[in-house]
Amino acid sequence: MATDSTDTLLDLICRWLEWDEDKETRREIEQLWIAKNTKELEKRLRHRIQFGTAGLRGRMAAGFSCMNSLTVIQTSQGLAKYIKNKHRNLSHLGVVIAYDSRHNSHKFATLAASAFVVMGIKVHWYEKMSPTPLVSFGVERLRAVAGIMITGSHNPAQDNGYKVYFKNGAQINSPMDAEISRSIEENLKPWATAWFDWGVTLSSALINLDPYRMVSLSYIGARSTVSRIGTPSPFIYTPLHGVGATTLAVMLHAMGIGEVMLSVSVQFEPDPDFPTVQFPNPEEAGALDLAIRLADKEKRQIVIANDPDADRFAAAEKVNGSWFFFSGNHIGVLLASHIFDSLQSEKKKYAVVLNSTVSTTMLEKMARSIGIRFRETLTGFKWMGNIAREIENEGHSVIFAFEEAFGYMFPEVCHDKDGLTAAAVFLAAEAKWRKKGLSPYMKLQQLFKEYGHHETMNSYFRSPNPETTVALFNGIRSWSFTKGKPLGSFRISRWRDMTEGYDSETTNNTPLLPVDRGSQMLTIWMDRDIKFTLRGSGTEPKVKLYIESCQPSRQEAVTAVCDTFSVVFKEWILPFAPTMTWHPTIATSSGHIFRVGEV
Length: 599
Description:
With 599 residues, the chain is α/β, with parallel strands linked by helices. Helices cover 37% and strands 21% of the residues.
């Protein structure tokens, strides 16, 4: 164990200095000890960074609770041992290891590779910085037993992460994450060769040097019929200082449309400091400001973006002189509409689409209207990727999946979210719609007219501690749900508790989705076609709220989601969690500003 309840702080410091051979992080701990900063030392050393279904992600700093060379070595040793012990018959297939442009990503990847070589496991080494989708794709293409991507995705510059895929190309999921975590705990002490020189590792016969070129060319050639493309409108692209630009540029050149892309030059090259954005996340306000400014200057109507590791995709369009920022749900249904239109009729009876329970219900309505099966999943592509594989094993074909947080999966390319393929498909769709006199925004309005205007409002409350979060959800449960019970001006029609394992509408009241008693999640359906979910975040001190209303008009839908927020705030947040804080203004998916202070 890295820590024990009986360990003194001095025990923890000595253990760190015994195990850590990275001069920078050793110096950090030594300087904190000299400064007698016991509070910070306790924070850094008392608890270990948790390995979960997303692997690791956190701040880069010295200490067992942070991302650093030692915790990467420990994680790699545990994962290598797990593969040898639990999947020995597959271990000869090797692991794919890649990294992005963040600080320390290359170093962390080399340390991970060394651990696998020590265990006698082959490493398929990506010599160049890689977008995350190429790891999922590469695991499948190279038929590896696992894949590791060193990336902090869209997190701030001081963060990094360690993302793990299994042989099916999907992110690991339960119970595998818990089994790997136990193996890490059993292999915390660095092996004697854990810190050896990278040059020694490179000389090993177990290193498959740079399959990246072959994998990337195969990935670029793996575009399906849904991304066969005419010439789209000239557009602006930004990778937000990440690693997506080169791959997307080559992809578009191969499609013969590279000349219509103009990039934000100061954001084109990878830069781990993300100097022009406060948060390198296309979801965040202001992230696309430079792209919008360039589009205005060049008189272009479309802006697209990837996050730094290129697994997310965002888009905006200039509409009547103002910029409309598509939500993740908007892009999801637009991509789905294009894919449905491109699907050969004989394939529809085998086709399935997925989205998460906090994403729009519009996808289900669209799919069922043309005879395509729909399946709801829990949040995260660890669920969508693995469920897609299960469905495929049953003889069906998952043609598309998405989550409202700008993540889109195209299983015939890879079984994880893929911002680069999303960009190609979006541009293909835009080119086709334009021939019919439609822009993406106009196509979205056409879909709303057909299926109802779906307005969403996604927000969060900051929770001061886990106890407050639990108190909120227990308080809501004490509210005693019954069908038809009023909640403000609405009436409850269905409720589902994924923590307690209850669904008022299913046989035996058992949810169809997997129950997770370690997390907090409630979903409520109300009259007037309204659904909302309250969910405790697994990675941040937040309770997230997702509201959706489907109404005949935009104004009716906006009013419904705003009224729902007001009711949840008054009836549940203020009584059961008065110490939670919130942002004073929230934008709905169509851009309507809701002021919480007016509630």
